């Protein structure tokens, strides 16, 4: 059985290290493991692969991969694979949502503290050699406590559930919106709203966190009307994907101080172009898609993928299966 690993990205951390394939060959001696470092040979190697580890594949590659039975994405988001040739096939798709969830959740909490304690503004004042105690206190929103604040989660997947756990431990009130509110309520969540009541959840949130997958229903979800539903001193955090948010509407809301602030880790186009007007929005804190970065990343990936590989070989149900009809 052939396992094809094809991961090529300009950012080195997203590329599987050499030891990943080597350990697979050692732990699964019955397998043929092919590790490609670019896309030049994918068309040839995919034809007889039964398992593929890839960020994305083209529709024609899926069609020519007659033996392909399982694709594993090292990302949590898989919207780039949601085309008919894969959706309508019998190929199983898994993702790495449980790998990224705890790490991204830590980043969310860091952003909550940064916004609550006005840390980006303090950093800018430091660069200007300005002692800004009065400036920060007289600004809006001024420094405030996290305990007792309400955090609203758009999405209760691996990221949302872990954010709920951490936020509850900090004394925050945790509310959320999700498509199926009747499911079991995760620990730490006080109230769940149906998708149709997103505005009601936003109106109660001091910090609104976007952590939903990109689907036709969620693309452009956070638009001008939704931003208008937020409190005047509330802050928006996006660690999901750029298409969830109307960035122009957000910039307008921030410049006019209709909301208190925002922190974005993901964007429609990455890297964010140097001429993007978002760089100059004063009450916007930008992190360059670093929420999921950790030196333990590939160890976590190996733990998940190797366990799933054992399950696959034993004919057992895989972990982190993506529902190809919903896209998550």
Keywords:
328 residues, alpha/beta, Rossmann fold, 2 domains, seven-stranded parallel sheet, five-stranded parallel sheet, 33% helix, 15% strand, elongated
What are the SSEs and their pairings?
Layout lengths: L1 E5 L11 H10 L4 E5 L5 H4 L5 E4 L4 H6 L5 E3 L11 H4 L4 E3 L2 H20 L2 H9 L5 H6 L11 E5 L3 H12 L3 E6 L12 E4 L3 H7 L2 E4 L13 H5 L6 E4 L8 H9 L5 E4 L19 E3 L10 H17 L15
Parallel strand pairs: 1-2, 1-3, 3-4, 4-5, 6-7, 6-9, 7-8, 9-10, 10-11, 11-12
In a nutshell, what does this entry contain?
The chain is of the alpha/beta class and 328 residues long. It is built from twelve helices and twelve strands.
Walk me through what this model shows.
The chain has 328 residues and is of the alpha/beta class. The chain folds into two domains: 2-98 and 294-313, NAD(P)-binding Rossmann-like Domain (Rossmann fold), CATH 3.40.50; 101-286, Rossmann fold (3-Layer(aba) Sandwich). It is built from twelve helices and twelve strands. A seven-stranded parallel sheet has the order 8-7-6-9-10-11-12, with helices on both faces. Strands 2-1-3-4-5 form a five-stranded parallel sheet, with helices on one face. Strand 10, helix 11 (247-255) and strand 11 (261-264) form a beta-alpha-beta unit. The longest helix is centred in the N-terminal third of the chain and has 20 residues, at 97-116. The protein starts with a strand and ends in a 15-residue tail after the last helix. The model has no long low-confidence stretch (mean pLDDT 97).
